[in-house]
Write the structure tokens for this entry.
Amino acid sequence: MKKTVISVKNLVKKFGSFTANDNLNFEVYEGEIFGFLGANGAGKTTALRILSGLSSPTSGEVIVAGYNAKKDPEKIKKNIGYMCQKFSLYSDLTIRENIMLYGGIYGMPKTLIIKRTEDLLDKLSFHEYSDRLIADLPLGLKQKLAFSVAVFHEPKIVFLDEPTGGVDPITRRQFWEMIYETANRGITVFVTTHYMDEAEYCNRVSIMSEGKIVAIDTPAKLKEQYGAKTVEEVFIKIARPDNRPHPLPSPSRLSGRGGNWVGIE
Amino acid sequence: MKRFLGFVKKEFLHIFRDFRTLIILFGIPTAQILIFGFVVSTDIKDAGVAFLDLSKDEISQKLSDKICSSGFFKRTEDLFNYNDINKILKRGKIKAVIIFEKNFGRNLISENKATLSIIADGSEPNTATLITNYITAIVADFNRELVNTSGAGAMLVQPEVRMFYNPGLKSHFMFVPGVITLILILICALMTSVTITREKEFGTMEVLLVSPLRPVQIILGKVMPYFLLSFINVILILLLSWFVFGLPVKGSLVLLLAESMLYILMSLSLGILISTVSSTMQQAIFISMIGMMLPTILLSGFIFPIENMPKIYDWVSSILPPRYFVVIIKNIMIKGTGFLYVWKETLILMVFTAVFIGLSVRNFKIRLE
Amino acid sequence: MRTRLYLIRKEFIKIFRNKFIGRAIFGVPIIQMLILVPAVTFEIKNINLCIIDKDMSSESRELISQLEGSTFFKIKYFTFSETEANDLLHSNKCNLILQIPSDFGKDIVTGRPGRLLVSANAINAATAQLSWAYLNGVIRDYNMNILVKNVGTQASASIPQIQITNRYWYNEMLNYKYYMLPGILGILVTAIGFLLAGLNLVREKEIGTIEQINVTPIRKYHFIIAKMVPFLLIGLVDLALGLVLGKLAFNIPFEGSIALLFLCSAIFMVAVLGLALFISTFSSSQQQFMFVAFFFMIIFILMSGVFTPLESMPLWAQKIDVINPLAYLMRINRMVMLKGSTIHDIARDIYSLIVIAIVFTTFAVSRYRKTA
């Protein structure tokens, strides 16, 4: 039996009258790579922030690493790593200084920090950059570094929010190698993305649309179920709002736009 | 031109959308005017004094009552021996101790001479000076009464004083021009330098620079809203000073507004100059706030007259534009003089504006290359 | 404890990595202090006087020569035209006009009171009043002289007179530098800490680095303390530098305990930084913070008693002032440095400062949300 590390039941998050997460239910198992797919604005980041204790759910039960996200967000934070969508290490610190800082915050002993820093710099062949300000690094290196910092303290789960946005294909590939390696160490990887080819690399994926989870399974099974060749096709079939029955614009809106309006294809 | 107007509109929206910024933009001047007008005063009132009356006779009582009924002083404590003086002054509530010598009244009657001593707390020199001046004046008045009753003759020379421009001796006659001067330069320089530096810091400046807008248009577009807002600020402060403090503009309002525009322009160009030398907003704020606030308050002659400062400060303060605007605004607003009295200062402000713009253009070009 | 040290270390690196801020943080206050302190004075000298002597008698000349002898006045202009004199006043060339009417001498000789007309530029009411008081003093002396002359020295002793002797304790010569230095230094240290600490936190929000911090198990108060400590230390170093230079340049006296002064300043800094961080938790951009900070700073400075006496403020304003940390600091600084007040004398002020510091810091910690 696989061990559950994230369990979400009836999660609802509202901002005023807007429902960002509408009754989400899913589980994530230990050591898997779980892909969280959806168009921009589908509610992925909101859910991710709740899971990592940055935001509090409006209702529902969220258990991460054995702790309730509403009651004990700080205990969750001890057991997870997190990589923001927007690069958010300190760009006016050097690589070494950033690693030191986060290692220190997670309470790692200094000797361990130093040792792991060297290992990391070796692995990424970052030695030449180690004392340079992060601001001067190219984006690809920044993202790799942000990921490495997120797992530096060996958390149980790491959350990655659009980790490969704007990165060249080669770096993306290297990045996924790093993810695999992390998963092999037993760290659960929870990753959001809108690159559908990346979804193929995940053990299981869920697809979100307009605040709801509309599909959840392994990539293979999803493709089978929807009769598609790629996850991208699956996604287009079920997740794109304009592929589902669309409410017709009312006649008044049509006339309001004048004669130039040509309608939806 | 159409593109440019669109850009200006965007900048306006940017400012007006943030309601908090607007409130603060107009709230600060309003609050400052009110504080200066109603709260802060350079005069003394109800200053705490202690009496050490070693005589306790009729005359000493009468004189101390006279001192306390003047409204300047409040009898806060009575002492009984010299050793208490130090103790009580150290606690800071009492600003001066007034001592009547032993046999004060008897000495005055029998020897025609009695001594009153004032020990004032010199750690606040201004208050100390005012206190001794006021007490001296009160005692002189008391002396005159004594002379009159003793029949030795009236006061021989009677001066009559006219307080020009400000017969009520109100301190806001000085503060209103000062606040306008201070607020305009700080807000204008701060606003411009920070908005431009922000674009630099967050990299959005590059986006603007590759747009078909010319750099001059970008800067103008950023500065224009603040020009308008500051101008509204001037009108707001003038209205406040008129309706709340009864301080109308005595001279030509048109001239005053025109001079204010020049001063705003000068401050905005100073802001642009600051933005060309700052790489982060923190730096811009540091220069335009910490760097400029105190020198403007202290060296522009708005609270502290420059002629009382050591000679060298006449030179030092001559590089501060606010100094000239204080003169201009005081002349037009309070004295009601015309352009003839302020043309020199106006010219100097124009030169400052030109220099600031020239330096900014130079720095900007260097950066682009 | 270790976590805090890591965070504090980070803040220090970040501050000093910006070359401009790293230097300005010490340079600007010191330079401003050295320049501004000698300039700021309420002391009045060189009151420019314009005299209209329509009398030209020996009596009027006597009065004029007494004015010449006074250190306060500088007789800049003699004229017979009132229009010219008014014009001089208009164009700021003189501050006071003394007009001696044509029958001044005759009146005095015949025992009638002589009249004098004084016109003062009163836009700066305080200066005008003080100048007038000094002029009045000269006229009083002049009166006394005439009295003595009229009745003879012997008889003048029979006029009852109260004499005044005054002494200024703690600052015998009324040196304004002693008074201004602690004040100006206090303002500069406040401004730097207040602005930089607040901007620092808002900036982390603006560029998003705070997100990465919030997702760690770090304690809220650790984070706030780490934001405070660097600026607290910088403030104290600024203060120390300022005092040492003040001693060297202006020979500022240190009557009281320096340790006490630093203790109070440290408590004060905590209060100010707490407020700054509290405000920054509300602000979404550095501009917004800056305006709120500017607003508070100006009010704090104006109502601190640095430039104007606190006692002359209306009672309600004095009541509001109990939450103004700068007002306490100004009072404490002057009392400790110039009067040598002990911890006993300023106990109440210290307690109040401690309460303010605790309240503001608690506000900041509780308003800072790691979880939205």
About this structure: Chain B is about 65% helix and 10% strand. Residues 15 and 21 of chain B are 7 Å apart (CA to CA). The two ends of chain B are 26 Å apart (CA to CA). Chain B has two domains: 11-40+169-368, 47-150.
